[in-house]
Design brief:
heterodimer, A: alpha/beta, Rossmann fold, five-stranded parallel β-sheet, 10 helices, 7 strands, globular, B: alpha/beta, 2 domains, seven-stranded mixed β-sheet
Chain lengths: 281, 317
C-alpha cells in the first residue's frame, strides 16, 4: 500500500469514527469534523514531526493547537489512530468520567491536547505564545493552529493577527477552515467578513490559498510550500477551502450538520458511503 | 504590644517591579508581558535587563492572556502586567479557559487594584476582582499589604506551579513589614495578638488595621490583627484560632463586601465556628474620582471605619 493509499484509507476510517462517536451520544459536531478530516490526517501522519509518548512541553517537536474545539471528534480520532491513547477510548466520547470531553481540554490529562478550546477565538493567541516559547528555547520546530472561518468574528483573533505580523512570528502556520458555514447559516448571511485574503495581507501576513482542503495530495503540496516559507519574518496563513460534512452526501452543501448527530438510519447510510478500512474501534 | 513603624511610604506596585527584576536575575524561565502600561507596572528594570524575555503586546489584553498561556508550553513562567480591571473583568473568559481550565502556570499581576488608584475614576478602579478570580477553580488569589510584602509575594509566586492572581495598588502607602515576617502562600500572619476582637485585613487595609488597633486601646479594647495576604487558599486555622479566643471579628479590605475576603471568612465561620462579624468593605457600589485618602474615607475603608465597625460589633454582643 502506498503512503497516499494509506492516508486515503485512514481518512475513511476517521470519518467512520467521527460518525459513530457523535451518533452514540446523539450530540457533537460532525460537519466541521468531516470537513477537516484530510487536514488532520495529513498533519499528524505526514507533515508534523513529533514523538510519542506525549509531553506537554513538546520541546523540539512540531505542535498543533485546535482553536475551534467543537470539531473534537476528528481531533480525538486522529490522535487515537496515531497512538496518543487507545483507539477503544473513542467509545467514551462525551460520556461522564471520560477524558474525551465535548470540547478538548487538558483538565482530564488526555494525551495530545495542550490547551482547552471551545470558547472561540483564543487559539491563535495561545499558538503565538507557544511560538515565542520555541524561539526563546532556540527550538526550530513549527507551531500549527487551526481556526474556523466563523470563529474569525471573535475580536481577539484580530489582536493576535496584528501581533503576529508586528512581532514577526515566522515559526507559525495558521490554518483557516473556510467552509463558509456556521451554526446559524452561511458566514455571508450571519456576518459577512469580506475578503479574508485581503485582510490577512493588509495585516502583513503571507497568505496561501488552498483551493481544495479535502484533497490529500493538494494539502500536502500546500503545507510543504508553506513550510518552505517559514523563517521569513512573516506569519503564514493557509486559507483552506473545505466542504463541511465531506464524505457523507447528505451532510454536504448545508450547515445543518454543524452540531447535529445522525440517527440510526442516517448513520447506516453514512457508514455505507465510508466502508471500514483499518478496523472500527 | 508589638509596634510597627512606617519605614517610609512606597507603592506596592514598585514592590512588584523590584520582585520581577530580581526574578529576571535568578530565574531564566521568567518572562513578562505588558499591555501598554510598563511605567505604571514598574516593569522597566526587568525589561532593561532582559529585553528578549519581555513582550509588549499593545492594548490587547485578551491576546496577552492567550500568549501567556502558550508561553508556558516549553517551560516559561509568564507574568502579565496591566491594571486590575483589565487583568480580570476584561479577560475573564481567556483566563478561565486558556489559563485556569488549562492549568497553565501564568502569574496575572494586577496593579491599580481597588479604589485607591484615585482620580481616574470608576472605569479604571475595580472592586470586584477578588471575587471574580477566587470563583475560578484552581486560581490562587494574593493581595499583599505593602511594598516589602508585594516583593516577597512576587518572588514566591514564581516558585508556585499553577495560575495565580497577584493584586497590588498604585498609591504610596506605609511600608512596614520587616524581614522576620516571612511570606508563604496560604499562610496568614499574626501581626498583633489580642483578646477582645479579631481584625483580619488584606492589602492596603492592613496598615489601617494596625493603626485602628492602637487607637482601640483608648476604648479599652485589646484587638488581635491578622494579615491575610492569600485570600485563596484561605488560612482557615489562623482565623478559627483567633475567633475562638476573641469571639468576634471584623474583616477589612479594599473591595466589595460581596465576593471579597470578608465573604470567604463569613463562609468559613458559618460552617465551622459561627461568630459575630462586621465587614469593612465597599457596599456594592462603583467608585469615583478623588484622592486615595478622600475615597478611602468616603467609602469607609480606613482606620476610622475599622474602629467604628469594631465598636458597632462590640455593642451588639
Amino acid at each position: 500500500m502506498s503512503n497516499l493509499e494509506f492516508l486515503e484509507n485512514l481518512t475513511i476510517q476517521v470519518r467512520r469514527d467521527i460518525l459513530r462517536m457523535v451518533h452514540k451520544v446523539n450530540s457533537g459536531h460532525p460537519g466541521g469534523s468531516l470537513g477537516c478530516t484530510e487536514l488532520f490526517v495529513v498533519l499528524y501522519f505526514n507533515q508534523m514531526e513529533y514523538t510519542l509518548p506525549f509531553s506537554m512541553d513538546g520541546k523540539n517537536e512540531d505542535l498543533f493547537f485546535l482553536s475551534n474545539g467543537h470539531i473534537s471528534p476528528v481531533f480525538y480520532s486522529v490522535l487515537a489512530r496515531k497512538g496518543f491513547f487507545p483507539v477503544k477510548e473513542l467509545n467514551s466520547f462525551r460520556l461522564i468520567n471520560s477524558r474525551l470531553q465535548g470540547h478538548p481540554t487538558t483538565h482530564e490529562g488526555l494525551p495530545g491536547v495542550r490547551i482547552a478550546s471551545g470558547s472561540l477565538g483564543q487559539g491563535l493567541s495561545v499558538a503565538i505564545g507557544a511560538a515565542l516559547s520555541k524561539k526563546l528555547n532556540n527550538d526550530p520546530k513549527t507551531i500549527y493552529v487551526l481556526m474556523g472561518d466563523g470563529e474569525l468574528q471573535e475580536g481577539q483573533n484580530w489582536e493576535a493577527i496584528m501581533f503576529a505580523a508586528g512581532k514577526k512570528i515566522d515559526n507559525l502556520i495558521a490554518i483557516i477552515d473556510l467552509n463558509g458555514k456556521q451554526i446559524d447559516g452561511s458566514t455571508d448571511d450571519v456576518l459577512p467578513m469580506g475578503s479574508l485574503k485581503d485582510k490577512f495581507i493588509a495585516f502583513g501576513w503571507q497568505v496561501h490559498e488552498v483551493e481544495n482542503g479535502n484533497s490529500i495530495p493538494h494539502l500536502i503540496k500546500n503545507i510543504e510550500l508553506a513550510k518552505s516559507n517559514l523563517g521569513s519574518k512573516k506569519p503564514i496563513v493557509l486559507l483552506m477551502k473545505t466542504e463541511m460534512g465531506n464524505g457523507v452526501d447528505f451532510m454536504m452543501n448545508t450547515h445543518a450538520w454543524h452540531g447535529k448527530a445522525p440517527n440510526d438510519e442516517q448513520l447506516s447510510v453514512a457508514l455505507n458511503q465510508n466502508r471500514e478500512t483499518l478496523g472500527d474501534y | 504590644m508589638r509596634v510597627y513603624s512606617n519605614l517610609g511610604n512606597k507603592d506596592t506596585r514598585s514592590g512588584f517591579g523590584e520582585g520581577l527584576a530580581e526574578l529576571g536575575r535568578i530565574n531564566p524561565n521568567v518572562v513578562a508581558l505588558c499591555a501598554d502600561l510598563v511605567g505604571s507596572l514598574k516593569m522597566q528594570t526587568f525589561i532593561d535587563e532582559n529585553p528578549n524575555r519581555f513582550f509588549q503586546v499593545g492594548i490587547a489584553e485578551a491576546n496577552m492572556m492567550g500568549i501567556a498561556a502558550g508561553l508556558t508550553i516549553g517551560g516559561k513562567i509568564p507574568f502579565t502586567g496591566t491594571f486590575a480591571n483589565f487583568s480580570t473583568g476584561r479577560v475573564y473568559d481567556q483566563i478561565r479557559q486558556s489559563i485556569a481550565y488549562s492549568n497553565k502556570n501564568v502569574k496575572i499581576c494586577a496593579s491599580h487594584a481597588g479604589i485607591t488608584l484615585g482620580e481616574d475614576g470608576a472605569t479604571h478602579q475595580i472592586l470586584e476582582d477578588i471575587g471574580l478570580m477566587k470563583m475560578i477553580p484552581g486560581m490562587v488569589v494574593i493581595n499583599p499589604c505593602d511594598f516589602n510584602q508585594t516583593k516577597l509575594a512576587t518572588l514566591a509566586v514564581a516558585e508556585y506551579k499553577g495560575p495565580v492572581y497577584l493584586r497590588f495598588g498604585r498609591p504610596a502607602v506605609p511600608n512596614f513589614t520587616t524581614n522576620d515576617l516571612s511570606f508563604k502562600i496560604g499562610e496568614g500572619i499574626l501581626l498583633r495578638p489580642g483578646s477582645d476582637v479579631t481584625i483580619v485585613a488584606t492589602g492596603h487595609l492592613v496598615w489601617e488595621a494596625l493603626e485602628a488597633s492602637v487607637e482601640l486601646k483608648n476604648y479599652d479594647i485589646d484587638s488581635e490583627v491578622v494579615n491575610i495576604h492569600t485570600i485563596k487558599p484561605l488560612d482557615e486555622n489562623i482565623i478559627l484560632n483567633s475567633v475562638k479566643k476573641t469571639g468576634c471579628i471584623v474583616s477589612a479590605e479594599e473591595h466589595n463586601y460581596m465576593g471579597g475576603l470578608g465573604e470567604s471568612i463569613a463562609g468559613l465561620l458559618a460552617t465551622k465556628y459561627p461568630t459575630p462579624m462586621e465587614f469593612v468593605a465597599t457596599q456594592d457600589t462603583f467608585g469615583e474620582s478623588g484622592t486615595p485618602a478622600e475615597l478611602m474615607a468616603k467609602y469607609g475603608l480606613n482606620k476610622d471605619a475599622i474602629i467604628q465597625k469594631v465598636l458597632e460589633l462590640k455593642k451588639r454582643l
